[in-house]
Amino acid sequence: MRVRFAPSPTGALHIGSARTALYNWLLARGAGGTLVLRIEDTDRARSTTENVEHILEALAWLEIDYDEGPISQVARSERHQELLQQLLDEGHAYRSNATAEDVKAYKAQHGAERGFRGEAQDSGAVRLHVPDGGETVVHDVIRGDTTFAHKHLDDPVIARADGSVLYNFAVAVDDLDAGITHVVRGEDHLSNTPKQLLVLEALGAEQPIYAHLPLLHGPDGKKLSKRHGAASVQELRDAGFLPEAVRNYLALLGWGDTDDETILSTQELVERFSLERVSRNPAQFDVRKLRWLNGRYLRALDPDDLTARLEAYTGRDGLADAVAISREKVQTLADFWPLAGFVFDGPADDPGAREKWLDEDGRAALADVHAALEPLDPFTQDEVQAALEGVVAARGAKPKQVFQPIRVALAGTAVSPGIFETLTVLGHDEALARIEHALRP
What pLDDT sits at residue 136? Predict the structure, then answer.
């Protein structure tokens, strides 16, 4: 098996393209095959070196490796010209100066559904001859057979008048030369497939196996975009998602195993993935579901591993203790600092929280807390918990009437890790200093 991932470097790697890359990678790794990375950079105005680097960076972050490439499509121009001339010499293609108006006039004469047929000329763009009769059938593992009657197909332009080849010709030649056996790509390419098959047929090549993947939508049923939470791999990375969780989630967008499991390791995905189980229906990308899945992965990490990832993500060192008390409350790496950053940077400034919890009753409770904590030695979590529960009992209060004023004093907000754990991580002196500050007029 030889598969390829062939992105156009016209921007960041879209999540839908990342899923295409993942499916090709899973197929290759599961079958002991080869994954070829081809950069389809024929759009010179939009294809930039920077965008190529973005694609390579995104694939590296997702840990999707490839066996051959990256191969530049433009760098293969000499080969494209060679086979273009072959088709001209063999009569499979012809030059034509036909304009859009000429095509329109032809259809007005022969019927709107009739494919355009031109006359060979000495100059102009190169068009591929499409037979008047018969049909081209795309055999697709996911969608079944799709038939395109030749009489409805225009003779497609495969090269401009200056000799530069167009996308459908270059793709067919590149797939042929790379020995691609399975073409797995988005269903938006389905309309291109008969043109590419006609090129392959003219070159005497066999048809590869096709699989056109359903497109990704947001929960509202519309095409996936930034308004749904993220549109590119880099945005997911920057939002604090883990690559292994993203791989798991992307794999399940349109594909499912027989036992309907949600959490599958990458190795399990490699062993179980098959094109035959990919749905024809559009899949929904829901960032809320990804957050939930990412949280499961995050909490399953070894504490040292999670700490290392958070230190790399935040650019801060010495996070181990804060990570230990926060891991149950975060779903992404980005959730950590808003939750626990106060441990290092001091309390946040939340006027609403102060007004609600540090009123007269709250300050009175906080004074009792200070009195209970001040003599503690050792300042352990068990000792702290016992002291605070004693304050709650003595005041005949609900726990939150005591704990929330403490939380606001320590964190500056009404949200933090567990109060006993937070006090212990801050330590006796720092915790009491923050409580004293909150009690000042």
Answer: 97
Residue 135 in 3-state DSSP? strand
Separation CA 169–CA 30 (nearest Å): 30
Whole-angstrom CA distances from 121 to 89, 126, 127, 161, 184 are 14, 10, 11, 12, 37
Q: Please list, in sequence order, all residues whose beta carbon lies within 8 angstroms of the beta carbon of residue 6, skipping any fewer than 6 positions away.
A: 37, 38, 39, 40, 171, 174, 185
Helix (H) or strand (E) holding 3: strand 2-5
Longest CA pairwise span in the chain (Å): 101
DSSP letter assigned to residue 375: T
Q: How far apart are the first and last CA of the chain?
A: 74
Residues 226-305: name the CATH superfamily: Glutamyl-trna Synthetase; Domain 2 (1.10.1160.10)
Residue extents of the structural domains in the chain: 226-305, 341-439
Q: Please state the pTM of the whole predicted model.
A: 0.92
Catalytic site includes residue 289: no
226-305 and 341-439, same CATH topology: no
Contact status, residue 50 vs residue 60, Cβ threshold 8 Å: no
pLDDT tens for 400-423 read 999 999 999 999 999 999 999 999
Name the class of domain 341-439.
mainly alpha
Query: What pLDDT does residue 225 have?
Result: 64
The percent helix, strand, coil of the chain (3-state, each to 5) is 55, 15, 35
Spell out, as residue ranges, where the chain has pLDDT lower than 50.
none
Identify the active-site residue in 104, 226, 289, 398. Answer: 226
